[in-house]
Amino acid sequence: MSRPVKVDMLVVGSGAAGLSAAVTAAMHGASVMVAEKASVLGGTSAWSGGWLWIPRNPLARAEGIDEAADAPLTYLQHEMGGEAADVRLQTFLRHGPEMVDFFHHRTAVQFLSG
């Protein structure tokens, strides 16, 4: 029988969200374990090819893609209707560009234009 392992953070699933949480926690000094039931890493993110839409991120803006500040919310409101007022959506729009900047400057993640 295996001995118990003690960690600061257990991440269940190795998709983009799980691995992002694991990397961020480890970079802030936490001991982290990722548990994945599949035989390969990546979760559903691997099936999608890892594509992300993070509006107004610094890499897109550096390539000249600099939409108006309200354009992403307007687009999402059109597509989602009343769900676009959700606080999670506001959080995504506000912090998504910070996430791209963090991973671009502090990890080996390479973002490709698409």
TrEMBL record:
Query: Required co-factor?
Result: FAD
**Domain FAD-dependent oxidoreductase 2 FAD-binding residues, every copy:** 8-111
Cite the GO molecular-function annotations of the record. oxidoreductase activity
Record protein name field:
FAD-binding dehydrogenase
**Is Oxidoreductase tagged as a keyword?**
yes
Please give the Gene3D superfamilies that the UniProt record associates with this protein: FAD/NAD(P)-binding domain
Alphabetized Pfam families for the sequence = FAD_binding_2
Q: List the source organism.
A: Klebsiella variicola
